[in-house]
Amino acid sequence: MDVTPTPAASSASPEPGAAVLRAPQPLPEPRRLGVLSRLAPEPMKVVLNWGRRYSLWVFNFGLACCAIEFIAASMARHDFIRLGVIPFAPGPRQADLMVVSGTVTDKMAPAVKRLYEQMPEPKYVISFGACSNCGGPYWDSYAVTKGVDQIIPVDVYVPGCPPRPEALLQGILKLQEKIASESLSARYGRAPEPSTAQLRSGLVPPPGPKDPR
User: Fold this and answer.
1) CA 138 to CA 42: how far, in whole Å?
2) Of 23, 118, 162, 169, which is least surrounded by CB within 10 A?
3) Is the dihedral of CA 116, 119, 121, 123 positive or negative?
4) Cβ pair 120, 91 in contact under 8 A
5) For 12-48, what is each residue's pLDDT tens digit?
6) Which pTM does this prediction carry?
7) Spans of biased composition, class Pro residues (predicted)?
8) How far apart are the C-alpha atoms of 171 and 100, rounded to whole Å?
9) Residue 131 assigned ligand-binding role
């Protein structure tokens, strides 16, 4: 029997409750993908884009006759729910996609912008019809906004006066292709810090000192 004392046995036994120092263990080598690592998809990017692509809650901002074609696209004959699009969200705060269908007037433009700002990120916009794209046959009217993209960003334009429901289905497919290839770093990159003048612009000035009288 080998009775050669080991370093641990030759040292004095630690007192109860005392910390015991152990030699650091070497870490295993990290696994690498080799030369194909640059072609491997980012897991979170793929999963998040896939989830947004097939779970679009739609907020229909119907302003004119194009809204009827949107309703037709959501009915049983065309049934865009099979594409992962859920129509008639309870409100803008629960919606991912806004479909602006119809003539946008200057009087209605602030309401469109306000409801768009209430939508949570990430949010997308489809401009449905010639009136929403550029004003349509009323482009020279003093009361018509020359395209909804003048007040909110638009992702997909669907032309027509009015477009058929199949055109809206094609626009949804184009939007889903855009979402599938979306870069999270580009979309959610850190925005430059606003200046003090930008933060104060458009705000209500503070009340002045009260009149002692």
Assistant:
1) 46
2) 23
3) negative
4) no
5) 555 655 555 566 555 455 444 444 444 445 666 777 7
6) 0.64
7) 204-213
8) 13
9) yes
Give the integer Cα–Cα distance in Å for 73 and 67.
Answer: 10
CA dihedral for 119, 94, 155, 103, sign (positive or negative): negative
Distances (CA, A) of 84 to 4, 93, 119: 73, 19, 19
State yes or no: 161 annotated in a binding site. Answer: yes
Helix axes 66-74, 165-180, angle to 10 degrees: 70
Q: Which two tokens stand for residue 38?
A: 């640059």
Q: How far apart are CA 65 and CA 161, in angstroms?
A: 9
Q: Mean pLDDT per 10-residue run, the chain (213 residues)?
A: 50 56 55 44 69 82 83 81 81 87 88 88 88 85 88 89 87 87 63 64 61 56
- The verdict on whether residue 134 carries a ligand-binding annotation is no
